[in-house]
């Protein structure tokens, strides 16, 4: 059965969130559909200093506030993959992994995904020396020579970030200069440990368990230069060569330019009535968060006018969405006890958590295996404070046995261990995935759609997932959340999440140089973020 919304926003990055804020504030029924993590590509940016009015923040915090605004105005969110769209009629249909949704208007904000550089050995060494996120993986190459591939915004900004780890930084630029004019370019050029090679590309990387040799080629002369590490050393190669538009759903339906980007007018309207596009998916000169949110606002206000005409044309009676009034917000905030100065959870986090924890269908027990470490002390603060926020959460503390030091296990109300373990976490970016794991264990849990639910139930072999993460990694929570959701729905799946900073033996055993890293049944290693569908493909293989 199709569900009806006035407008559907496809994509939960800054453009989609901005559109949702404007649509919901105008009291339209709006649904935001995001297949991965709300926030988009900007969530992997460690420092945002060019967003007007915000002196300094990071991508995840910035987009989390956008999502909070949208929800406060009444926007709904759905974690699902859009599999198709019917856009030609007055009533449009968005097909997803969680069912079909009917709407009068669509704002497509699917964004773009990082491109591969295409050199020989790139895929072979992914996770073992080739990386795509400086924030997530830079620390693994402390004191090493790091190659940065690219000449645009991302390469410059991420290259500057990597200078804090690299012994030497070699920036490989295909053109005769960087493609941007920015003070950051001069800062990178002035760094004493940075060498910039223009009209150059990586031809190949070689090695064994890590990259020991990098072959560069001068694009003008054809001359090759080989960098070869000492036997006890290795290299890191970080790739930032731009993005490719997420346009698979649009081909044959919406006009695209020769590079695959959506063609829109100044109102962000496509060639199809009722379909608008916003953000990095569009033809534009500047792809930054500030232009994405501008696109979203313009698309939303343009769609508002179109919806008005459609309501009249189709003789529809409009239903207004109720915004969360300031009075209700104050009452909600007042219901949560204030944090003490030494508390693990601050007031804002407590207020955000209260409605989530109180939606639990069943109570759960958090079992802390405590040792004498600082991590255990922090974990104890956290589980105690969570139990104060909601009576749906209980805790117990027992002495840690070997292998379970500073570990939190999620159990049901009877104390049965559900096979969801966090070692040395939660904290940093993993706190949200920990709360999500609790929500999935207690119910109702994330709605992943009937097809995915059936695939989860169909796993009849026991499979154990060890997941190595870094608390600074913004991509790790996607994999952790997907794994925990599957484990919560099938007792054959168990998950242990490790903060790799505290488990060097694990890093050495599996030669982990990129996170997230997932090991299935102790020997099948996978790198990179995965959503529920992608993880189910691995588990069913």
Verbal overview:
The chain is an alpha/beta fold. It has helices spanning 14-25, 59-72, 134-137, 153-162, 183-190, 289-313, 326-334, 347-357, 374-389, 430-442, 450-457, 476-489, 504-510, 532-540, and strands at residues 3-10, 30-34, 76-79, 82-86, 92-96, 99-108, 112-114, 130-131, 145-149, 168-172, 194-197, 200-207, 211-218, 224-228, 236-239, 243-245, 275-277, 364-370, 393-399, 407-412, 417-423, 463-469, 493-499, 517-520, 524-527. Strand 4 (82-86) and strand 5 form a beta hairpin. The protein starts with a strand and ends with a helix. Helix 1 (14-25) runs parallel beside helix 2 (59-72). The strands form five sheets. It has an eight-stranded mixed beta sheet with strand order 19-18-20-21-23-22-24-25, sandwiched between helices. Strands 1, 2, 3, 4, 5, 6 and 17 form a seven-stranded mixed beta sheet that branches. Strands 8-15-9-10-11 form a five-stranded parallel beta sheet, with helices on one face. It folds into three domains: 3-113 and 243-313, FAD/NAD(P)-binding domain (3-Layer(bba) Sandwich); 130-239, 3-Layer(bba) Sandwich (FAD/NAD(P)-binding domain); 337-540, 3-Layer(aba) Sandwich (Glutaredoxin). The radius of gyration is 24 Å and the shape is globular.
